[in-house]
Amino acid sequence: MRLAATIRNVVYPFASLREVMAKANSKKSGDDLAGISAKSAVERVAARAVLSGVTLETLRRNPVVPYEIDELTRLFEHSLDETAFKAVGHLTVGQFREWLLESETDGSKVRSISAGLTPEMAAAVCKLMSNMDLMTVAAKCQVVVRANTTLGLPGRLSSRLQPNHPTDDIAGILFSMREGLSYGCGDAVIGVNPATDTAESTAQILTAIDGVLKKNQIPTQHCVLSHVTVQMRALQLGCPMDLMFQSLSGSELGNKAFGISVALMDEAWEIMKEKGTARGPNCMYFETGQGSALSSAAHHGADQVTLEARCYGFARRYKPFLVNTVVGFIGPEYLEDGPQITRAGLEDHFMGKLLGLPMGCDACFTYHARMGQDELESLKVLLCAAGCSYLMSLPVGDDIMLNYQSTSYHDIPSIRRLLLKRPTPEFDAWMVERELWDYERNLPGRMFGRPEAIVS
Amino acid sequence: MSRTRQLVDRLREELGRSDPMPIAPPLPKIQEPPSRVFPRRHEGSRFARETAQHTTAMLGIGHVGTRYATDVVLQFQAELAVAHAAVDAVLPDDWAMSNGWIGLSSRVQNHREFLLRPDLGRRLADESLARWKQSGKHGVDVQPILADGLSAVACMQSGRALLESFTRACQARGLSVGVPVVARFARVWLEDEIGAAVGAKVAAILLGERPGLGTGDGLSAYLVYDPKIGNTDGQRNMMSNIHARGTRPEVAGDRLAVLARAMVDQRRSGVELDLSQLTQQLGDAASRAPRAPQVRERLVERQP
To answer: Which residues share a beta bridge with B106?
Structure first.
């Protein structure tokens, strides 16, 4: 296969499909850092031109990380749905983009071929799409999942309530959680990033949250985002746990740096299916983010969008209840500024949905990235217009433990009102019952924003 | 008449001919909203008072519709601006010299490159390395390094106090201390090359930490035994949140010297360093656990 394109009589040759994939990527500081990005805007288009002529079949035969050295590549190959693949394998990436955008291609058709796509295919078509293309296709893809509540139904927007505390002060966590609930946040999950990564601490936080949820009959899920092995030990201690969490990477080496493997996650899932306290069937929660593989030198020369898609390929094995990309968390060396973070958020949401995952997004920035509040608010609206399943929610968007800026308690009801969205049906009913929202006028209810509506 | 024309004509008829936006009726004088001040003073809600005992999260701030009150917006924007200003600050070229210290530079050329290329911030520029080998004191127990990191503001504000208290405390514990040096555009791992170049047993880099909302004046310290290129984070011990509202530089210097002494005695650092006998003296520096919450200051006051 000759990999070259001509623009204005200049020939742009590429040595490998991996190079084409990297150079076709929208500009990202992380790809510059890896030294694999296009040298100019024109070369980027040339790479896209080449990529648009490559078939999905060819992408399947050329994974960005070789089969022999990577268990994820082997997992993707062995678990691919051959019937679904047969329907699309012959298409070029350019043709596949057009098929996805066609009006006749609805969500159910996309769902029929989803399991036949390798992550590389999702990443490749992503590179040929503009931001609005990404939104248009993502909005077609419906992924509905169920734990205690039902997430991802049309016209719904959920949120993870994230009442983190720098010293795991239980009272501090619960105060924040009650306030968030009074704003209608937390219908996806009440999820705490613990400061102390121990089984005892994980069990203690879960038990405290569980108490408040039970006492107030709040239909949602809880989760403490410690390492998966810590959560497995916490389950042995006998604590409630609705969802089990883990961060994922896009290569075997990257996952090794996270202290996980396919075998370990298989084991965790089995334990969770047995001991998890949510009704299910979905009980896992994963987080990802462009750049994580490179940050542990585990990228194998591949670009960060493709590696991100591979995280989703890994995640879908476990039929998760939640997957979200923590899009601006990793820092400006991977996503430099507002436009790059915005683009990455829309890419990740699109790729995840295309691969059949209940995608949410932690739309966020660290304080050393070039992004401001207005740009972040815009990204949240774009994501939700594209059907993003859930966002985060914190007091004024400020994570006092992890020191970064995300979605606020006030943002969730604002976006719901703006885009005429509602929380999960179960949580929705609870909110009406507690007079937190007045749906007749679609305005805050009598108890909105009043934490005393939730007893501790 | 065409079908389309007929259709449009009928629509016009249905929609009427009147002005679609008639003048809005006048309102009586709007009542002034209640005063909403951040942070809630003592007269605020019980919830706000109770939360303040347990967390610095901005809770009990109320809402206007579904959005923030004006005073909350100003507080938030001020906190954000302070954090961004700290990141944007650059250590002046001559800052080290004007303080009587040796100034070194990483391989980074400018501020943007500093943010985008952490790899370059972890290595010394050739000229700096050569000069440092000449001017540094070789074979010391502890090589202190003051650096900008992600907040030159913090470095310039409390860097001197921390460096001096750390040096004194090390000497009081019988440790020999190298020539103080300031590194510009520096990442944590730069301590490996600087320490290795003079054969120090322990390298200690004191640098501005990544600002959080409303902060930007915090220093962190990272200590490593046997500094050499290729050391990982697991081999370092760290202490964060060193500033007037967190751990004061004078206190931090002492605790860091306890760490350095332990490293020299045990000939190791990081996860392998046994600190079980030293927890009393170490305070915050004893564990890898995170810092306690700090007080959230009101940043904006309008002149009456």
So the answer is: B124
- Which pLDDT does position B294 carry in this prediction? 58
Using a CB-CB cut-off of 8 Å, the residues of chain B touching A173 are 55
Residue A422: strand pairing partners? A156
Q: What is the pLDDT of residues A176-227, one digit of tens each?
A: 999 999 999 999 999 999 988 889 999 999 999 999 999 999 999 999 999 9
8 A C-beta contact, residue B143 and residue B104? no
Tell whether A368 lies on the interface with B, counting CB pairs under 8 A.
Answer: yes
CA atoms within 13 Å, Cβ hemisphere of A354: 31
- CA separation for the pair B261, B278 (Å, rounded): 11
Residues from chain A that touch B241, judged by Cβ atoms under 8 A, are: none
| Residues A290, A293, A296, A298, Cα dihedral to 10° | -160
Q: Do the Cβ atoms of B210 and A368 come within 8 Å?
A: yes
**Interchain proximity A395–B56, CB inside 8 Å:** no
User: How far, CA to CA in Å, does A448 sit from each of A33, A103, A410, A454, B257?
Assistant: 46, 40, 11, 11, 52
In tens, the pLDDT along A41-100 reads 999 999 999 999 999 999 999 999 999 999 999 999 999 999 999 999 999 999 999 999
> Residue ranges of the domains in chain B?
88-285
pLDDT at A271 over 70: yes
Supply the DSSP string of A267-318, one letter for each residue. HHHHHHHHH--S--S--EEEEE-TTHHHHTT--TT--HHHHHHHHHHHHGGG
C-alpha span between A48 and A126 (Å, rounded): 11
Q: Which of A169, A405, A410 sits opposite B63 (nearest CB)?
A: A410
A197 touches chain B (CB under 8 A): no
Q: If you ran DSSP here, which 8-state letter would residue A196 be given?
A: S
Q: What is the dihedral of CA A349, A324, A341, A379, to 10 degrees?
A: 70
Torsion of CA B244, B246, B250, B255, to 10 degrees: -170
Chain B partners of A297 at a C-beta cutoff of 8 Å? none
pLDDT digits (tens, 9 = 90+) for A349-386: 999 999 999 999 999 999 999 999 999 999 999 999 99
Picking from A170, A400, A456 by the largest number of B CB atoms within 10 A of its own CB, the best residue to mutate is A400
Tell if the pTM clears 0.90, that is, is over it: yes
- Fold for domain B88-285? Rossmann fold (3.40.50)
Tens-place pLDDT, residues B182-210: 999 999 999 999 999 999 999 999 999 98
User: Is A332's Cβ below 8 Å from some Cβ in B?
Assistant: yes
State whether B210 and A33 contact (CB < 8 Å): no
For A268-272, B16-20, B75-79, B133-137, which range has the lowest pLDDT when averaged over its residues? B16-20
B58, B77, B80 ranked by CB distance to A395: nearest: B58
A54-63, A142-151, B89-98, B288-297: segment of lowest average pLDDT: B288-297
Complex-level ipTM beyond the 0.85 threshold: yes
